[in-house]
Design a protein that fits this description.
mainly alpha
C-alpha cells in the first residue's frame, strides 16, 4: 500500500484513506473489538481498505460493514473456500500473494457473500417449512377436536403429529 501511495498518490487519495480510517475506527478498537482489530495488520490492511471501499461504493452503511467485520472475525474467517480459510492464508503466505489483483479479491468477497446469502435463504426456507408444518399440526388438532365433539371419544381415530 505504501509503495502504491508513494508512486501513484494524489492528495485526494490521502483524503480518501484518512476518511476511511476515521470511519473504520469505531469498529477496530483494540479494547472493544479486539477480534476485529487483529484483522488490521500491516500485511492485511490494504485488503480491508479495498473491501471497505467496495462496501462504500455499494452504499452499504458503515454499521453494516462493522457487522460484516464482526461476522468475519468470529465465523467467516474459519470457512474454507477452495480448501483454504483466512487463517491458513494469513499464516502461510503474505496476503499480497493471495490476491494478485483487485479482481481476485473481489471474487473472493463475492464467494463469501454468495455463501452467506445461500445460507440465509436455506435458513428462511427451513423456518417457512417449520411454520407450515406447525400450521398443519394446529389445523389437525382442530379437526380432531371437532371430531371428538361430533362423534365422541368412543370412535376416536389415532393421529400422530
Amino acid at each position: 500500500m505504501c509503495d502504491y501511495l508513494n508512486y501513484n498518490s494524489s492528495s485526494d487519495e490521502y483524503k480518501d484513506i484518512e476518511e476511511y480510517f476515521n470511519r473504520l475506527i469505531p469498529y477496530c478498537d483494540k479494547i472493544k473489538n479486539s477480534e476485529i482489530a487483529t484483522l488490521f495488520t500491516s500485511k492485511n490492511l490494504f485488503v480491508w481498505m479495498m473491501v471497505f471501499d467496495r462496501f462504500s461504493k455499494l452504499n452499504v452503511s458503515d454499521d453494516k460493514f462493522g457487522e460484516f467485520l464482526n461476522t468475519f472475525a468470529n465465523e467467516l474467517k474459519f470457512k474454507k473456500i477452495d480448501g483454504e480459510d483466512w487463517n491458513s492464508i494469513d499464516a502461510d503466505r503474505h496476503t499480497k500473494e493471495v490476491f494478485k489483483t483487485e479482481q481476485e479479491c473481489l471474487e473472493y468477497e463475492q464467494k463469501l457473500e454468495h455463501k452467506r446469502v445461500k445460507q440465509e435463504k436455506l435458513e428462511m426456507e427451513r423456518k417457512n417449512r417449520l411454520e407450515s408444518v406447525n400450521k398443519k399440526y394446529e389445523d389437525l388438532q382442530e379437526d380432531i377436536s371437532e371430531y371428538r365433539k361430533d362423534y365422541g371419544t368412543r370412535l376416536e381415530g389415532y393421529f400422530t403429529p
